[in-house]
């Protein structure tokens, strides 16, 4: 696939020009973690103006891009401080909905706290076209040594696009300073390193993979040494989900999940299986050591351990993560970042272009509105009508079908008896309803009479709409 190279302009905050937009980018964060936490919001805002899709983030606190020697990536210990920063990165990135943020964990590990050099180059599913950094230096100019070292450093760690472009970000979070003058970063080990486990398990729907999912999965990847078992809800487990019709197919959810996991930590073995009951293999796999849960799903983790004991297996360590607030949630949406809220926001949007059926006439174009009572059918119908659509109210046609003189009136009266008629001869719908609802055989008898009649009435109105459309076409 060809890549269009965009000519670089002045970085945000460094001039009057605007930066061209790139599909993918790598953000190398070099500030000490304690300082970085306060700078994330403006840094991400600057990056979001440059990268339009996938933004990889590489944490290398204390990295210096000055001096004569070429900087190399070293291991960062997986501490609570590091995990908290990763959580904050994803939470702050939620303000930039167009960005698919992925914090890379290759150089973050919990087996050893001794810094070591990383030698192999990691392939990424969306090779970066631009390299960004928060590193600050007083050395200006488009081709200064810092940029050259940044590009060499990035390509020594990850697969990148040819003709890589580098950008030094200058978010307006504090006065300009030369980061090369800062003391070397030392990890805060007072809180200890995160515990690690050979095999870790987690479950979820993982619909429209979002930043709260990424926080959950990142915790799993940091805790797991060898294998991560992921159960993805399917079939019966989706029945009670809000707007289940809009949940992505299982295969699509798994594909997105795999791409993310292999990007952020390719060294792990990933087993992804469908979940058709609340437990899946978590209660039968003897190799599992830890289950990752949220505040909401902790009870499920406790239930898993109860089942494991019943099956003669050891209990799993429960690692609980906090829910992430959705600061932009609507009045009818959940307060946390959730797939349910995302699906609600899809209502009224075109999910996929209409598929042309050669067997169907091009005119009229028919839109069917369905839904339960109070779902908004009438409101949407009136809106479309104001836009010029020809409105066919099938409920109204149903009433006309068994009104006196209507095409289904005599057959309905004959089938269900004269006691369903009012004094004026109209059908008493309440009495008719009492005869059919709760009696599947009688209900089918009614629908067999009325539905074909309504279908014919609808067809006539469709033909009328087509004729009217032809008359209204400009000459």
Automatic annotation (TrEMBL):
Pfam families assigned to the protein according to its UniProt record, in alphabetical order: CoaE, CTP_transf_like
Keywords: ATP-binding, Nucleotide-binding
GO BP terms: coenzyme A biosynthetic process
GO molecular function: ATP binding; dephospho-CoA kinase activity
Transmembrane parts of this sequence: none
InterPro entries per the UniProt record, alphabetical: Cyt_trans-like, Depp_CoAkinase, P-loop_NTPase, Rossmann-like_a/b/a_fold
Domain Cytidyltransferase-like: 201-345
Superkingdom: Eukaryota
Name this polypeptide is given: NK1 transcription factor-related protein 1-like
């Amino acid at each position: 696939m060809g890549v269009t190279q965009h000519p670089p302009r002045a970085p945000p905050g460094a001039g009057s020009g605007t930066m061209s937009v790139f599909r993918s980018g790598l953000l190398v964060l070099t500030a000490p973690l304690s300082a970085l936490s306060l700078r994330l919001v403006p840094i991400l805002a600057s990056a979001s103006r440059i990268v339009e899709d996938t933004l990889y983030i590489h944490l290398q606190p204390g990295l210096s891009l000055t001096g004569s020697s070429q900087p190399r990536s070293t291991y960062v210990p997986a501490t609570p401080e590091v995990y908290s920063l990763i959580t904050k990165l994803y939470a702050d990135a939620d303000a930039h909905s167009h960005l698919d943020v992925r914090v890379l964990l290759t150089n973050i590990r919990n087996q050893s706290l001794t810094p070591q050099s990383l030698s192999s180059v990691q392939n990424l599913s969306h090779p970066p076209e631009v390299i960004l950094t928060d590193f600050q230096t007083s050395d200006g100019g488009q081709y200064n040594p810092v940029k050259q070292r940044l590009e060499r450093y990035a390509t020594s760690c990850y697969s990148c696009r040819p003709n890589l472009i580098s950008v030094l970000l200058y978010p307006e979070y504090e006065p300009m300073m030369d980061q090369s003058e800062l003391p070397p970063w030392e990890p805060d080990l007072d809180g200890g390193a995160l515990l690690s486990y050979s095999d870790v398990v987690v479950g979820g729907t993982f619909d429209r993979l979002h930043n709260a999912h990424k926080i959950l999965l990142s915790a799993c990847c940091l805790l797991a040494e060898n294998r991560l078992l992921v159960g993805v809800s399917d079939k019966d487990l989706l029945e009670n989900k809000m707007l289940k019709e809009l949940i992505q197919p299982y295969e699509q959810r798994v594909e997105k999940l795999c791409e993310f996991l292999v990007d952020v930590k390719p060294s792990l073995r990933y087993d992804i299986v469908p979940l058709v009951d609340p437990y899946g293999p978590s209660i039968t796999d003897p190799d599992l050591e830890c289950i990752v849960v949220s505040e909401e799903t902790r009870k499920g983790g406790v239930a898993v351990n109860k089942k494991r004991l019943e099956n003669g297996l050891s209990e799993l360590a429960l690692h609980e993560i906090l829910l992430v607030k959705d600061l932009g949630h609507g009045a009818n949406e959940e307060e946390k970042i959730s797939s349910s809220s995302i699906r609600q926001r899809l209502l009224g949007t075109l999910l996929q272009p209409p598929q042309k059926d050669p067997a169907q006439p091009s005119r009229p174009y028919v839109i069917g509105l369905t839904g339960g009572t109070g779902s908004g059918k009438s409101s949407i119908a009136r809106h479309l009508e104001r836009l010029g659509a020809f409105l066919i109210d099938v409920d109204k046609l149903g009433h006309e079908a068994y009104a006196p003189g209507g095409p289904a009136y005599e057959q309905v009266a004959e089938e269900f008896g004269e006691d369903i008629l009012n004094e004026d001869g109209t059908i008493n719908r309440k009495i008719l309803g009492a005869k059919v609802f709760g009696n599947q055989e009688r209900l089918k008898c009614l629908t067999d009479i009325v539905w074909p009649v309504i279908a014919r009435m609808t067809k006539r109105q469709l033909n009328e709409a087509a004729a009217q459309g032809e008359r209204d076409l400009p000459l």
